Amino acid sequence: MSPSPSRSTASVLPRPAILASVLLFTMAAWAAIAFAWWPVYRDLGFVVVAAVAIPLGCALAVVATALRWPAWGLMLAVTAALVVVGVPLAVPSRALYGVLPEPEGLLELISAVALGWTRLVTIDLPVGTYQSLLVPALVSLLVGSAATVAVALRARRPATAVAIPAIGYPLVLAFGPESVVWPISTTLALLLVLLLWLAVWRRHRRTDALIGSVDRGRGGAVRQFASAVMVVLVAGGAGAGLIALIPPPDERTVIRTVVDQPFDPFATPSPLAAYRASFQPERADGIALTAEGLPDGERVRVAVLDSYDGVVFAVGSDSVDSASGRFVRVPARRDVPEGASVAAVELSLGRAFGPWLPSTGQLVDVTIRGEDAPAVRDRVVYNAVTDSAVLVGGAPAGLRYRLDVIPAPVEEVDLSTVSPGAAAVPAIVSVPDELRDWLSPTIQAIEGEGARLAAVVERLQTDGFLSHGTDDDEAPSRPGHSIDRLDELVTATPMVGDAEQYAALAALAAREIGFPSRVVLGFIEGVRDDRGEPPVDPAAFRERDLTAWIEVSTVERGWVAVDVVPPRREVPPPDSDETTPITRPQPAVQPPLEDAPPPDEQAPPDVDLDERDDATGLDPLLLLALQIGGAVLGLILLGLTPVLAILAMKARRRRRRRHARDPATRILAGWMQVVDDATDRGIAVPPTGTRRERAAAIGAPSVLVLARVADRAVYAPDEPNPDEAARVWSAVDAVRRTFRDSATRRERLRAAVSTRSLRRYSDRGGRQRRRKERG
Fold first, then answer.
1. How far apart are CA 215 and CA 567, in angstroms?
2. Strands, sheet with 287-292, edge to edge from the N-terminal-most edge strand
3. What are the tens digits of pLDDT across the range 458-516?
4. What is the DSSP letter of 355?
5. What does the DSSP 8-state code read for residue 6?
6. 758: which DSSP letter?
7. Is the bond leading into 126 cis (omega within 30 degrees of zero)?
8. Beta carbons of 153 and 66 less than 8 angstroms apart
9. Rg (Cα) of the chain, in Å, rounded?
10. Is the overall model pTM greater than 0.85, yes or no?
11. Shortest CA distance to 321 belongs to which of 390, 363, 248, 266?
C-alpha cells in the first residue's frame, strides 16, 4: 500500500488535485470567517484586506512547503509580508501615495498587532478604517489562512487543519457586536465547508491507497459528499426548528460586554451635585460655552444621570447594571439612519466641564479644532443610550470642536396621552416616605400614568418657587438632592428649591408612577436666566443658564424631555398660606372629585431588567468563557457526527451478524466480519478471490482455518450445529484482538472510522450460492 501524501513532511508538494482542494477549502473557510468580521468594520477597506490577506497567506504556505522551509521560516515570511502590506492595507492614512509605509505607520502597525485587540472592544461599531483597527482582521486572516494550508500540506494528520478555522470562528464572533447579525448562515456555511473538506480528504487518501481503482471509488466519494451535506442540512433544520420554538435573544455576551471600558462614570463626582457652584455671584455671569448652528429649541446635554443612591443622582455603570454607564470610543463616523437629517454645531467651552463633553442630539461625528486635534479626538468616548459624550482626561476651557448630529425632536408632548416605556434604568435604592405622602393626593383620583405624571409636573410648577440661595435678594435654599433635602422640599411651606432639587424630585415621582426616568443637566436654546442683565452673544450660554430637566421613557415617543423647574417669581415668606398666583394655561388634567375613590396602590416600576444576570451567580468573564467553550464544543461534536454514525453502523452490523438466525449464516457472517476488519485496516483483500486466497492476503494462520470452516458451512451437505458457530465467533474475536494488538493507536483509530467495509459485502456471492443450494 502506497503512503498517503498527508504523511509527507514538507518534502515536496502533493499532487495537483490535493493542492487545489487545500487552497479551495482554505479560502472558502476563511472567507466565511471574514463574513463574521464584517459587522465590526462594514467598510470597503476591510473587503480589500480580506481579498489580499487570505490568498497571500495561502501562497506563502505553498511556497514554504515547496521550498522545504521549516516552521520558523514560514513564520518569518508571514511577518515580512505583514510588514510590507500591513500599512497600505490596515493603516492607509500612514501610507505615502497609498503604498509606501511611513515610519509612523510602521510603529502604529506594530503597536496595533499587540494592542489593537483591546482597542477593538472599547470602541463603537462599526469602526471602518479608523486609525489602525484593521490590523486585527489582517493578522487573523493572514496568519489563519497560512497556518491552515501549512498544516494541511505538511502535518502527519492533515485533517487537523480544519481545527484552525473551527477555533478561529468563535474567537472572531467574540470580538464582534452584541447584536446577532448572522446567527445561523455563516455558521452553517463554515460547517459545510469543513465537512466537505474532510470528505474530500478521505477521497484523496483512498485514491492514493487503491492504485488503479479510482473509478471504483467514485460512488463512495459521492456518498461522502451526500453524507456531509445531509449532516449539515439535518443540523441546520434542527437548529432552525429549535429557534422557531425558543427564539434566541437579540443580543449576546461578547468580550466588549464585560471588558473594562475606557471611562467609568461612577469614579467621577456627580455633576448635579456641583450644580449650585455655577450660580455663585463671582461666576454666574461667566460664559460657560458658545454653540453656533444650534437648531431652535435644541438642548445642549452635559450629563445624563439615571442612578440614585439616596445621596446623589449619577451615571449608571457596571456596578449598577446600566448600559448608560458604558462609554466607548467613537470611530471616524457613526451610521446615519435612512432619511435622517444631519446638522453641524460648532461648540467652544468657556470653562472646564471635567470629563463631560457638552453635546447635542444624536452624535454622528466629532471634529476637534486646534493643535493636537488627532490625539484629543482619540480620547472622545460616547454612550449611545443617553446620547452623552465624555473626553477622557477632561474637557479643558478653550476647547473648540464641531459636532455632526441628528437633532432631537423639539415639539412639545402632551404627557396625558403617553404611557410608560420599557427602557432599562438602574433601580432606585430609596424613595422618601414624604415624597409618597406628597404624591398620593396629587394622583389619587386620576386615571392613567401619563395623566398622573402631567399632574405632578403641574403641581411642581404651581406650588414650587425658584431660588438658588446665592444672592442676598434670594430666599434661602439649601443645595443638594439627597433624601433629606427632598424631604425638606416637599414638607416646607413654601416649596423652595432650584433645578437640582426639582429635577431629582420629578425623576423619583416618575419612577413611582411607573415611568423609567433620568435627570439631564445642560442648557436649553432660547431659555436664558437673564434677570434684566444686558444681552450677550446669542450663541453664548452663561453659567447661570445651566439647568436640569428630566426625561421619561414612553411607548409612543421613546425618551421625552420634560421641563419641571417652576418659573421665577417672588417667594412668599416662610410658613405663609399665601402664594403668588401665576398665569398658566388650563391644565390638561381635571381637578380631583370631592368624593374621590381610594388611591390605587402604586408599585415602583420594575425596570431593572438585568436582575436575570445576577441569578446565574457566575462572573461575567467566566460566563463568557463557558459560552465560547460551549460553542467550540458544539462545533466539534457536530463535526464528529459522521464518525459517530460510522461507529454505530459497524456495531449494529457486527451485532446482527453474531445473532443471525441459523448456525450456517452465523459462521459465514463471522468470516465476513474478519474480512471487513482486514479491509478497514488497509489490507488489500482481492474482491473476486476465493476465501483461501483472501485468507492468504490477510496473512494470519487462524484466518485460513476460518476460511475452511466457512467453505464447509457453505458446501457441506450437513447443517452445522450452534456450538460450531459459537466457536467460530470466538475465533473471530481472537483474530480481531490480534489485529488490534498489532496496530498502533493511530492505525486502530483509522480502522475504526474507515468506511471501506461499508461499501460492499465481501462474501455476498458465497451467501447467495448457499441459499441457492438450500432451495
1. 93
2. 362-368, 400-406, 343-349, 287-292, 540-542
3. 999 889 998 888 887 788 888 888 888 898 898 888 899 999 999 999 999 999 998 99
4. B
5. G
6. G
7. yes
8. no
9. 38
10. no
11. 266
